[in-house]
User: Fold this.
Amino acid sequence: MFKAILPENTELETENVGSFHWYIQDWKALETKTHSPVFHVNGFPWRILLFPKGNNQKKSTSVYLEIANPKENNLPDGWHICAQFALVISNPEDPTSYYSNSANHRFSSDEIDWGFTRFYDLDDLAQMSATEKGPFLVNNQTVISVFIRTVKDETGVLWHNFTNYDSRKETGYVGIKNQGATCYMNSLLQSLYCTNKFRKAVYEIPTEGDEPTKSVALALQRCFYHLQYSSAPIGTTELTHSFGWNTLDAFMQHDVQEFNRVLQDNLEEKMKGTPADGAISKLFEGKMKSYIKCINVDFESSRVEDYYDIQLNVKGCRNLIDSFDDYITVETLEGDNKYMAEGHGLQDAKKGVIFESFPPVLHLQLKRFEYDFMRDTMVKINDRHEFPAEINLDKYCSNADKDGPYDYELHGVLVHSGDITGGHYFALIRPEANDKWFRFDDDRVTPVSKKEVFEENYGDEPHRNGKDPTVAATFLNGTNNRVNSVRMMKRFTNAYMLVYIRKNKLDDILAPVQESDIPQHLKRRLDDEKATLEKRKKDRLDMQLNVKVAVVTDDSFKDYQGFNLAVFDDRYLEASPGVDIFKALKTEKVSTFKQQLIDHYKLESDRFRLWSILYRQNKTVRVDQPLTSADERLTVERMRETTCVSTQSNGFTKLYLEIAEKDKPLPVLKNDQMLIFIKYFDVRQQKLRGLGHMFVSLNDKVGSILSTLAERAGLTKSTSIQLFEEVKPTGIDQLKSDITFRRAEIQHGDIVCFQQTLSSKEIDEYMKSGKITSVPDFYTSLYNQTCILFHPTLSSKTNTKQDLKLILDRTSTYHTITKKLATELNVEAGKLRLMSSHPITNQPREIPHYKPTTRLEEMIPNLPKPNEYAQFVSFENVNTPIMYYEVLDVDLADLESKRSIDVHILGPTLRKETKVTALVSRAGSVRQLLDQVIAKGKMDVKDPSKIRLYEALDGKVTKEFSLDQTVDNVASEKNSIVYAEPIPKDELEMDQDNDRLIQVVHYHNEPTEFHSIPFRFVAIKGEPFEETKKRLQKRTGLGDMDWKKVKFTLLKNLNAPQPQVTVFDPSNFELRAARLQEEDALGLDHIDKSSKSRFSSVFEKGIFIRG
Assistant:
């Protein structure tokens, strides 16, 4: 009965089994929550938890299995037990009449019970149900039983819910956060991190002067350091920024092999000339030989190449040995496919590859993603493909190695779960030379069993065999949906990359990374950053009990260059330099807080006065009123609420500290007196000077303070000065000296700024030297200040390639900006070209038309508004717009009078293509254009008359240009491509009377969308098509395997919506006899492999890492 109620799971190892039957004699007398007697299975105390009338509902009885009183039963900390169990209710007079429900659960201190809230309908307990079960409650009696099978938790995480799971504590490793679609990167980074010799090599790269967001090596060092010491999952934003990636790149899945290769290329370049030089090749580089060996004559052609990984077929291979056998399969070249051996003519030959050496760390790429020619799409190969824990590769190598046999142990399995449109990546890694495997799945690391490493990642296609009874049952039984989904996941989850380590190198490669292996500067920097983060954390906790008080004095704004008396950033809790910040308990009274000020400023209690600072309706910040005794009885927290824009903002309590003049008492405040603050604009120094405060009588005229202000500025009393009121950033109003302060509407906290009156001559002289001559203009320049981050473009000619932040006026012209930027870069201003960036991707926009008078705010539409800067102390806290600059070879103004044309130079085959950019006068000739192309492309052919310049659009030749034509018509269509090709030898030697030059185009299936490079080709009179095919293959550069798949057609009226297609028999055909006209072409029908990608998303682009 036990097995009938609780079938055994063959995938789990049983530790113990047990059962218990609870005979309930008086159902109605039970408490609303009641327990069975305690019983023991596998040393754990168990009991049944019963809610006879339901738990949180009243329709069904609720029954659970529970661990009884863990503390009282002295269960150790961190205890857990995994069990399969079935709860059963049965007729007390007939045990064969029962109802059961089963579950699996991990019982722990976090979840001591598990079961069923709606176990059985209360209404059906005492009667037979609609499903003909019961009755189970007979004469107020019933039996509730439990059957338990405890199972071995091999990995320690069986049925874990991972709430509060600590990867570092449980495994010694931490995970990596997923930025959006970076699981492919995370899995490879964990594999490289666990290749300890590689990690040590990365640590050896000198990076002391680098910035982490600009140095791939430093960012990777920091990433590895955090993986080694962090207690929580780490982020990779810093690393991807160092790659030059934006947010959109983080949401694109890429090929792991491509990413690995690009990353290692980048690091190899950084390692040159350092202690780490050659480390990557020593770890990952092997050698293989491609050969063609004649059968009947003594001739062999071979080429030895380095490799960093091996791509092995999965399709048609049962296991890794089959894949290696397939890789070195020898092809016989015979019949029509004989090999042209130098000096021996056409010969039968053997063609193949053999390995000459294998590296210490062997990366094997399993070709799970292939192009399906029948379906014309990329597909994922989910076939079963087994890989061993150990493998010997001696038979695949031509040379014996002095270090011993090529015996390898499996170290890592990188897995893809999903299909061709996307999915998820994770890594299974054995970090040490033992049997412990871990699953590195983004931010979580868990132990796994060998079955999870091997069997579950071989791949599976369960639905191929219709006779499989388990598959049929899965579909027929609706209750097996979960089994079905698990099986489906297994179908799409399989290994795509294997990492093997050579046995005799294992101890060296996996030797622990010690603290002494880590650069001292890296530890110092990261320790400092950690201390800063800890301080911020402490400050945040501190601010829950305390409030920061910002105190402004007359000294605070002596050198302050800005609006108001200071900037108070309530969000970041920062204030402009000079403002003193104090800390006080939120519950502390202002009167008590004053003692801090007395102690700090060494004041006497009767020689200072506190004033409140408030935000006015016009969004300025001004000193408002002196604090009364009632105000001083308020808490500093209550005072903060009155001095912040929002009570929700955890900002400053803001106060102005008025200090009596030396040897003078604190002035008595009169009703008609107002406190104002004075700023002086020094035209010569081009800066503001804060000159403290003063009291003015409302009935006095403004002119009454002129001589006092002049003296404060160090000017003679008689100096003519002009006064302005700083009403708001965009309102700097001149104060007339013949009106009263009352009429000028002066109030407490107003700011008066003055300057020396300048003559017309002085104004002209200052303006000639680029200086500002008036208070309003100076405030306007402050208001218009903005910060721009300048990035070099990839094509920029400057060697520095540096990023620069410049403070600019938003009204600055193109000319002014380039002049300032050129000074910083030490280049010619005229050769700088600017481009704005996209506000989301931060990538360069199209190059704008050059106009010297274009203003910065016109170039960057998303430039932050001036009021956005006003609330921040530093530009660092504002989103900094990005502009790109390019240093050109020529003057930009000159460039605008010329044309920049991209030309693709074709080599002897279409597969060899080089792009150059030529700059020619708009009235220039094609000959002049070709002269530049020849020089820039370093072409072997120097005579422009022997080079064809033509233009293609949508895969068809649209124009050909003669040497004397002007360049006006070249690249006139937006999407056209311009090609330059040395005219082939067969064309130079063609018989003009009998041969004909035709067009050849590429397409696939339907000649409505063309691909690849169209080209001109000589149709030779009397030439059999078999010979023509050889010339065509040579011209296209396609390999033998790809060439065999090409179909040949004649296309009439190529530019028609549906060209006429004629299929011909190549064995009995002459191309010249087809009499193709100018609008016709020879069609090559074949796949465009170059345009296919694993994930055919319109957003996908090739992976790159900034150098």
